[in-house]
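Recap quiz, item 2
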Amino acid sequence: MSIASRRRFQLALLLGPVSAFLAIFFLGPLAIMIVTSFLAPGLYGGVEWTFYPHNFGRILGFADPMFEDFDPIYIAIFLNSIEIAALTVLATLLVCYPAAFCIARLSERWKNFCLFLITLPFFTSLIVRLFVWVLILRQTGLVNEVLLSSGLIERPLDLIYTKGAIILGMTYVFIPFMFMPVYASVEKLDWTLVRASLDLGAGPVRTFWRVILPLTAPGIAGGAVIVFIPALGNFVVPAVLGGAKVMMFGNLIEQQFLAARNWPFGAALAMMVMSVMLIMMVAHVVLSGRRSATAALAR
Amino acid sequence: MQNSIVRLVEASKAFTTPEGGSVIALDRIDLDVRRNEFLTLLGPSGCGKTTLLQAISGFVELDSGSILIDGEDMTDRPPYRRPVNTVFQNYALFPHMTVGENVAYSLEVAGVAKPQRREKVASALKMVGLEGMEARRPRQLSGGQQQRVALARAIIARPKLLLLDEPLSALDKNLRQAMQIELKTLQNELGISFIFVTHDQQEALTMSDRVAVLSGGRIQQLDTPRAIYDHPVNTFVATFIGASNLFEGRLDGDRLMTADGMAIRHQPCDRKISTRATALIRPEQFFLAEDNAPFPTIDVDLDQIVFVGSTFELFGRTAEGRKVVAELPANRRSLVGTMEQTRKARLAYDPAAVHLIGSNMEGV
């Protein structure tokens, strides 16, 4: 065997397990979902094996006149979900970006301790942590109790079951996801470049926009993608903190599968989310690919 | 117009170490840098030379003392408001900008219009021999080219003073020597003062109008390269610049008597100096003694004879066990041949070439 083909063989051996796993447990279900989304819903759950594009029609405006009407509520929920996911990205970024700069400048020991703290929430169940937020935010919760007893408010505030509560909960859940890529790019920021900028007459603000932000942009973009995608499809946080009042797309999908038992429609909704994520991923890959391509060219 | 472009008065700076101690980086330094001068700060690592540079550029805040640039007090001014630019050791080019954008950065910041900017970038790049490279990325350039871009970027806004922080240390020897000459030429063309930091004494001697030798946060000696080489004020400067043979002892007329009984002749001078002193003989001041020449001599047993191209270096030992190094022109090969046989040499020196260093750190 030549060295090249042996290397290829080794590579295949190393990538084998993960490829097999993804093929069986990711591509398989994905194919099933795509097929299902184009099938007609069965009368009592399940599917009927006929081509039926009206699942998407119900969402986008060409519903099957026999059964359902087009209802813009789905697009409204979808846009609402995108808004919540985008605000979550923004909020996590605003928390993580300054923190990354602080932690990056600590000594090695404190650095590791802080990184440990960031990952600490993963050690307890997400549901438990979200119910703690319920205890904090509800009408008789911690925040309202404190505000009431201090006399700042007379009646309890509606904190829970609002869009704000969902964004707060999402931000809390996704902070570690944003922090890691942002921290990685902030930590390897070359501070002599910052010095060079100051030395050349640029003040702190301009130095931030012209040097610090562009150089840490890859981490921000990575964090945004990693937060936005699961935030868009998340249904646990809105279920716990949004109650029945605020619904996200994830809840809608869950409802179609579990409560309404309309699997094809649920699958079609899921495809909507998938397509947005796909567009984002492709954009991210193309953009970062272009960056690394110029880097590779330089080398 | 004053003759001084930068003036430091009693500049002091101490750093706290992680262990809680304190290290004095600058110890009440007074320094005047003249207009259109190429001044080199030379010293071993940790001597305070980089701290001194950063104090001038504004990245290190002084504990006490003041800095004036062109007569204006700059002590409390941030780096971006000082009329000073720096060439950094690792070039510090912005990787996300093209060469042109890098060079234009200070002009862009100052609000210079785009057409003028383009014109100035072109001429700055031409000055450093990189015409037409505007569209390249820093990473696509060699180390020497990146160095030139950094230089163009630092001089384009015509600062009153250019600081260079060991800018040549990453270049290979040939390129470094070429850049040394170029830097000197560039400084003459621009007519601005350069302050150059290096730990390479050869570099310092080659380029500078004056050299400040630093050690322990203090300027040990500030003078022309020749004066520093020929008349070091103390043994630190003598050993740091060039190779040296030092003989410490008691002065007795035109002799210096070492404790182990050697006598070094020197030119008696009128000035009264301390009774203890150190005599300095540079290796190249030794020559091989002819039989009846009227010069004092030192007999050595040779340990090593090293051929370094233009010269031979002799590493020997006196009868007292003292190490002596001498440098002979390589054209005296036949003599070297006999020395290789006998492993002995009689080294002569001219008493007029012996430099005496007073033991109280004062020069003669």
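Chain A has two domains: 1-71+265-299, 73-261.
Chain A has a mean pLDDT of 89.
End of item.
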